[in-house]
């Protein structure tokens, strides 16, 4: 399935437009007090590529402390992405009243038995407190493990509608 190859973390690091991050943040804030989740898709190469934020319903039985993609909507995203020649660049979710860290549960879900399910995909975690994004981090798979760096919210906090 080409959609699951991933757009690569390097593309996300250097070229993700602030408007895309703003859409992601708005979805995660709207999901509060539950964890929100979704993916960011990319089509094309270089500066001419385009990005799409796809919110997904949180199917976790404990949505305040965990997220899970429901199989049917996730499959539909993958099929649509294939048809549009897009790849998954990023999986994102929020933590409710908790730090924006890629938790041990997040790591276990992304790399069961230490094997990354989507090694070329970045993971963004956004801390939502009182319905508002307060911090964020990005994790990428590197040499057998995830490396996490903070993302400054000021870089994608916009008050105008997108």
Automatic annotation (TrEMBL):
Domain of life: Bacteria
Gene3D superfamilies per record: Cytidine Deaminase, domain 2 (3.40.140.10)
Keyword Nuclease set for record: no
Signal sequence range: none
Protein name in UniProt: JAB domain-containing protein
SUPFAM superfamilies: JAB1/MPN domain
Keyword list, A-Z: Hydrolase, Metal-binding, Metalloprotease, Protease, Zinc
Residue ranges of domain JAB in the record: 18-128
Coiled coil: none
Entry annotated with the keyword Metal-binding: yes
PANTHER family, per database record: CYSO-CYSTEINE PEPTIDASE
Alphabetized CDD domains for the sequence: MPN_like (cd08070)
Organism name: Corallococcus caeni
């Amino acid at each position: 399935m080409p959609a699951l190859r991933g757009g690569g973390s390097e593309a996300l690091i250097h070229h993700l437009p602030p408007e895309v991050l703003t859409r992601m943040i708005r979805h995660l804030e709207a999901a509060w007090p539950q964890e929100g989740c979704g993916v960011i898709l990319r089509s094309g190469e270089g500066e001419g590529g385009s990005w799409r934020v796809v919110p997904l319903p949180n199917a976790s039985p404990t949505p305040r402390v965990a997220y899970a993609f429901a199989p049917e909507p996730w499959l539909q995203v993958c099929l649509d992405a294939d048809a549009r020649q897009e790849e998954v660049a990023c999986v994102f979710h929020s933590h409710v009243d908790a730090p924006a860290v890629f938790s041990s549960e997040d790591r276990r879900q992304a790399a069961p038995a230490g094997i990354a399910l989507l090694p070329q995909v970045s993971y963004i975690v956004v801390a939502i407190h009182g319905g508002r994004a307060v911090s964020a981090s990005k994790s990428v798979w590197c040499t057998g493990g995830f490396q996490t760096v903070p993302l400054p919210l000021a870089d994608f906090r916009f008050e105008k509608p997108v």
